What does this fold into?
Amino acid sequence: MEHKYFIFNKPFGTLCQFSGEESDSLLGDFYNYPKDVYSVGRLDKDSEGLLLLTNDNRLKDKVLNPSKKKAKKYLVQVDGAITPEAVNQLQNGSLQIKHKGKTHQVAPAKCKIVPQPNIEERDPPIRVRQNIPTSWIELELTEGKNRQVRKMTAAVGYPTLRLLRISLGEILLEGLKIGEVKELSREVAYKALR
It folds into this structure.
């Protein structure tokens, strides 16, 4: 079997699957992927950005196996002017979130406040409230519980408004427009996820 590797800039509102309701936005709406290719991990419907798809189970394990601690980096727009104290809480491993009905101690992460990034507008745009500022952070995790970034920013008092994954290992979203797909060679995929 020939292994194939793709990266996709997932738009807001698209599901990380190939089948669903007629009204759903699905992966196959953007590219004619080979039949046995699936997404490696997920981004929820409200999240955007880098999604890796492949039929190579060895590579999937490199990404998804928690013991491998593959770094995933996100740009996150939060509600309010985030404080250095909140950033410290996001990165120092002291946060607890709910996951599958249980309390989960979040692993230490990397987090910093960043200027508004030069990225495409979301469709539809986020809601804007005149009196409340927003801020952007870059957050890098080595774990990936369901809706973890959203739960973390909410736990420190700054709900997520927009969430965009920009890297997975050394695979970068850079230069890929919303809805675009790019095929990678096996060498590039493995080197970026070593």
